[in-house]
Design a protein that fits this description.
Organism (chain A): Micromonospora avicenniae
Number of strands of chain A: 2
Number of domains of chain A: 2
CATH topology of the largest domain in chain A: MetI-like fold
Radius of gyration of chain B: 24 Å
Largest sheet of chain B: none
Family (chain A): Belongs to the binding-protein-dependent transport system permease family.
Shape of chain B: globular
Order of helices and strands of chain B: HHHHHHHHHHHHH
Order of helices and strands of chain A: HEEHHHHHHHHHHHH
Low-confidence stretches of chain B: 1-13
Shape of chain A: flat
Number of helices of chain A: 13
Oligomer: heterodimer
Number of helices of chain B: 13
Membrane topology (chain A): Multi-pass membrane protein
Subcellular location (chain A): Cell membrane
InterPro entries (chain A): ABC_transporter_permease, MetI-like, MetI-like_sf
CATH superfamily of the largest domain in chain A: MetI-like
Helix content of chain B: over 70%
Number of strands of chain B: 0
CATH class of the largest domain in chain A: Mainly Alpha
Chain lengths: ~325, ~290
């Protein structure tokens, strides 16, 4: 990855002003200043660099190493198996199910959350009394812990639970299903819970993007006789492009990592049959709980590579335009 | 909300007043979907399990306090809340201190390799903690940090640093150069400038990254699940999950425990919502 992330912008640096000293002394003062500058640079960044390298980068390197062994996690790994673990993973139908489920979650999140979030953000960007309260309420699901949200929905969606009762009282009893037990339905139930949980995040981002649109533009559109709807369509939406793409990026990465909600909401038996498993739950089930550490690490590497490649492709083809864009490209 | 008549331009300086009822109707619908399940859980905590089984969608009749009292007095709720608080505060402090130091250098120093260092940190945005969790566990085990607060705090700091630096850097570099020059003339070194001028000026951004780190840590589940095997160190998310799988038949108790566990995050967010949105606004704007 290059430094072409759109939410990052080049920062203006500043050197200490050179003092007006006599030339003979200036160079030694300069040298002392430079040395001091480097002490500060190293001293201030080193703690962050150490923690970051040690806990973010190093583990991923170890994952690659461990993934080449058959290893139960006791003593150092010795049983070198090459790429067997990777081959095994792609031969396991449950893992392939997990891959499919991740694909459903990635695409489903984008397709379902995007339009909802856009509509709600445009709505909440209007001026009306009580808007602040509505904004707060819409963000509530996003702030809840995944576990809390998961357990909540598990209780609501249980057989003959609240959702079923509600549907029956609305005359929709014939549509009631075993939301968490039906192997063909459970992944869609998961998608529903994930949508409920994360659409607020998309709304927050879009509202932030909307508030960056200069009011002059909407006023100009109004003077030109554009209706509210036309203004949204032809002024707001194009200007929101960069924000929408950033959200798509974050949503995609998040969907590939989906773990908590699925872990908590869906029954382990259903998960182990592949109906609701994701790469992450599959990895923890096999690596941590079944103590197949080498295999689990191979899955971790696959998960990482897929996320990394997806992120790079996304950056390359969709986010690059935003760096050149006049609206987001500007430096504060 | 399709077509509507265009009011004359003179009236549209503060537009959008026309459709208030429709706006409210839509906003109410969205709000209901967002919050109804949460309210259901909180209210459900005031019912008894037989009530819930008899009529899952009903209201408490009569209201019982027993579930909440039970959770607060008999369960590990307080111990877990304490663990969550220690870990979240430790994470927040670490993220803010390390993040502001690194972001300050990246924003206010000119040196060879600065952009490289920045890219190096932003690379972390592509290293999701989920994918690294197994090797992270193994490493923490080798460092004998398993079953300690550090096992959660240190990785959480590490994984929050990239976003923190991305948010803080533009804030810190937006402070005008003149202020730095003025501070230098007054005899302040660059560290004095950081301490006396940058930190007070960038307080909103610091609060933003602090809030984000705190909420993320308070809600974290996967990392604590793996590294905190000792029940005495369990955080609230682990506690909620354990309670719900341990007392499956005590639906009312689960509802009460879940409500109490989500209350701190909700309150915290209510107070900090502006900061979160404001901070993200800065990040989106770049």
């Amino acid at each position: 990855m290059t430094s072409t992330n759109p939410i990052l912008s080049p920062a203006g640096g500043a050197d200490a002003p050179s003092a007006g000293l006599r030339p003979s002394r200036r160079s030694s003062v300069r040298a002392a200043q430079t040395r001091r500058k480097w002490y500060e640079i190293v001293g201030l960044t080193l703690p962050a660099v150490i923690v970051y390298v040690m806990f973010v980068l190093v583990p991923m390197g170890f994952a690659v190493y461990y993934s080449l062994f058959r290893w139960r996690g006791i003593g150092p790994p010795t049983d070198y198996v090459g790429f067997d673990n990777y081959v095994l993973a792609f031969q396991d139908p449950i893992f392939l199910d997990a891959l499919r489920n991740n694909a459903i979650i990635v695409v489903g999140s984008l397709v379902v959350q995007g339009p909802i979030a856009l509509a709600v953000a445009l709505l909440l960007n209007r001026r009306f009394r009580g808007r602040a309260v509505f904004r707060l309420i819409v963000f509530v699901p996003y702030v809840l812990a995944e576990v809390t949200a998961g357990i909540m929905w598990k209780l609501l969606l249980t057989d003959n639970g609240t959702v079923d009762a509600l549907m029956r009282s609305l005359g929709l009893g014939s549509l009631v299903r075993a939301w968490l037990a039906d192997l063909d339905i459970v992944i869609w139930t998961m998608l529903f819970v994930l949508t409920w949980k994360y659409v607020g995040f998309a709304i927050i981002l879009l509202l932030a993007g909307l508030s960056n649109v200069p009011p002059e533009l909407t006023e100009a559109a109004a003077i030109d006789g554009a209706s509210w709807w036309q203004t949204q369509r032809h002024v707001m939406l194009p200007l929101l492009g960069p924000t929408i793409r950033i959200w798509m990026f974050l949503s995609m990465i998040g969907s590939l990592q989906a773990f908590e909600v699925i872990w908590v909401t869906s029954v382990p038996a259903v998960r182990s049959l592949g109906a609701s498993a994701t790469m992450a739950t599959y990895m923890v089930d096999n690596g941590f709980f079944a103590r197949l550490w080498g295999y689990g690490n191979a899955v971790a590497v696959i998960l990482f590579v897929i996320s990394f490649v997806a992120a790079l492709l996304f950056q390359r083809f969709l986010l690059r335009r935003d760096i050149d864009g006049a609206v987001t490209g500007r430096v504060n | 909300m399709a077509a509507e008549s265009v009011p004359p331009p003179a009236v549209t300086r503060r537009p959008l007043a026309w459709s208030t009822p429709l706006t409210y109707a839509l906003a109410l619908a969205v709000a209901a979907v967002s919050i109804a399940p949460v309210i259901y859980v909180i209210v459900g905590g005031f019912r008894t399990t037989p009530q819930i089984i008899a009529d899952p969608a009903g209201l408490p009749d009569p209201w019982v306090w027993d579930n909440y009292v039970r959770v607060l007095t008999q369960s590990d709720f307080w111990k877990q809340a304490f663990n969550s608080a220690v870990i979240a505060l430790g994470t927040t402090a670490g993220v803010v201190v390390l993040g502001v130091c690194a972001a300050f250098v990246l924003a206010r120093y000119t040196f060879r390799g600065r952009e490289g260092l920045y890219t190096f940190f932003t690379l972390g945005l592509l290293f999701p903690s989920g994918a690294a969790i197994l090797p992270l566990y193994l490493m923490l085990r080798d460092l004998t940090l398993i079953n300690s607060y550090y096992a959660v705090i240190l990785p959480q700091i590490a994984f929050s640093l990239p976003l923190t630096i991305v948010i803080l850097r533009p804030f810190l570099s937006a402070v005008p150069r003149e202020l730095e020059d003025a501070a230098a003339i007054d005899g302040a070194g660059r560290l004095g400038f950081l301490w006396r001028i940058m930190l007070p000026l960038s307080r909103p951004a610091l609060v933003t990254v602090g809030v984000l780190a705190f909420v993320a840590s308070w809600n974290a589940f996967l990392l604590p699940l793996l590294v905190l095997g000792d029940a005495d160190l369990h955080t609230l998310p682990l506690g909620v999950q354990n309670f719900s799988s341990q007392y499956t038949s005590d639906t009312a108790g689960i509802l009460a425990f879940t409500s109490l566990a989500m209350l701190p995050a909700l309150l915290f967010f209510t107070f900090a919502e502006k900061q979160i949105v404001g901070g993200l606004q800065g990040a989106v704007k770049g």
